[in-house]
Amino acid sequence: MSHPEDAPSVIVVGGGVAGLNAALYTARAGFETTVVNAGESILRRNGHLENVPGFPGGVNPRTFLDLLDEQVADAGAARVTGEVTTLDELDGQFVAETDEAVYEGDYAIAATKSNPGYLDAFDLALDRQGSKTYVDVDERGRTGVDGLYVAGRLAAEPHQTTVVAGHGAKVGLTVVEDSEVPYYHDWVAPEGYFTGRGREVPPGVEEIDEAEREARERDSMERMRAAFAERHPDEPTMHPSVADDE
Ligand SMILES: Cc1cc2nc3c(=O)[nH]c(=O)nc-3n(C[C@H](O)[C@H](O)[C@H](O)COP(=O)(O)OP(=O)(O)OC[C@H]3O[C@@H](n4cnc5c(N)ncnc54)[C@H](O)[C@@H]3O)c2cc1C
User: Where is this region: Disordered (predicted)?
Assistant: First the structure.
């Protein structure tokens, strides 16, 4: 998926469950989206993921994350590796710095689960609970700094994959709704659903004909067969204190 030259841009800091889902929605809405991720999602520690919708027997969480990453790449988002050490705002642009690169965006979404030290340039309201620090946000992930949002566990969402995925999606949609990009819903409808009633296809919505539906379904079937043909090669990541004992 390509984006128009003048598309708004968004930096997503953290490419775990919430960050990737936020990126999925901003990229699909036409935003030039860059996910900057260091390390790995805490979900890689899971033994077998049994409470995400649509997987009655559960799913290997590493397969789930790989598929999510593939989906975000297909939507047109760039995914780069790097630990963001500072996020700041200069001349109306958010600037994220890693040791090796600088990324700029009209919007920024922080989705790093914890350690919000890279956000120190902003006077954000923080909620400290024991060893954890969360960022106070409104019900749509807005921080009070125009254009800066927080998604997932870092926004004190419950420590569950489906919840932080949904929150990432919600925050991604909030960025779109707060922008100038015309938008209705991120929907794919069968041909005629709107036009058959004499209505325009709303922005963000696609109507697809029978041939296209079949092509997409067959592609999805093949990709799922390939993804689930073998067990995932990676073992769960252990808690660092367990790994240290070994
Ligand atoms: C052992 C275990 C089992 C679990 N099992 C389940 C389960 O069965 N069901 C369930 O629903 N949930 C489960 N969870 C919880 C689930 O994994 C989390 O709730 C979810 O991953 C949180 O998503 P997030 O996007 O907020 O954080 P993460 O998915 O951890 O993503 C944060 C990302 O940001 C990156 N990052 C951090 N700092 C920076 C930085 N400065 N710059 C760039 N990138 C950065 C991190 O490396 C990571 O990739 C489990 C968790 C654990 C530990």
Answer: 207-246
Report how far ligand 1's centroid is from the alpha carbon of 19 (Å): 10
Ligand 1 pocket, CB under 6 A: 13-19, 36-43, 45-46, 49-51, 83-84, 111-113, 115, 118, 152-153, 159-162, 164
In angstroms, what is the span from residue 156 Cα to ligand 1's centroid? 12
23 shares its domain with 141: yes
Residue 82 and residue 168: Cα distance in Å, rounded? 20
Domain containing residue 171: 9-183
Q: Which tens digits make up the pLDDT trace of 220-230?
A: 999 999 999 99
* Listed residues 130, 159, 183: the one ending a domain: 183
Could you tell me the pTM of the whole model? 0.97
DSSP 25: H
| Minimal-distance CA residue to ligand 1 atom 5 | 46
Can you say how many angstroms the Cα of residue 187 is from the centroid of all Cα atoms in its chain? 17
Biggest distance spanned by C-alpha atoms of the chain:
67
DSSP state of 155: G
